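U., I forgot to send this yesterday:
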Amino acid sequence: MLASLFLIGSLFTTPQMSVQAASQTIVEDSAGGTARAVNRMLGGIIGYARWPDGQRGAVRTMCLVGAPRLTHRMAPVVPGGPAVTVRRMTVDSVTSGADCDIVFLGRMPVADRQRLIGWVRGRPALTITDDDAACVYGAMFCLASRQAGLSFSVNLDAIGRGPLRIDPRVLKIGRDGEGAP
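Result:
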């Protein structure tokens, strides 16, 4: 059923339609619990993405644009997957041909966000943000801090517009985790 939901959703959703997809408890402590939770979630999301054949690499590049809300210490680790290098970049440097496998959109002007989302369409780049909890502005995955912990939403329309494939089991994570602390 999840695979069917994924296929139907990717064909017939609008940018305003999203599916709650996962939750994870944030443990706040002085040693960087929030950063660890965010990086663990980022690694999990990246682990569900499949780049087109010929795009496999031992290292993925995450281009960080804007100011992240949840943590400034981005260092995702993909269990059993590729290493992820994080580079802070400007909108201009990304859209002028930067080699970004993942684009993380922090706080930024709306015009810059629209320009980045427009540039990514049709490219093999995963988009993630922590500045759009409702997931309506075009990123594929949208992180949010909730009372119960860290969660993310999935924009099926954005996923359906590009050559990346996201394992439909990502939708099951949230369903199984609903109500978890």
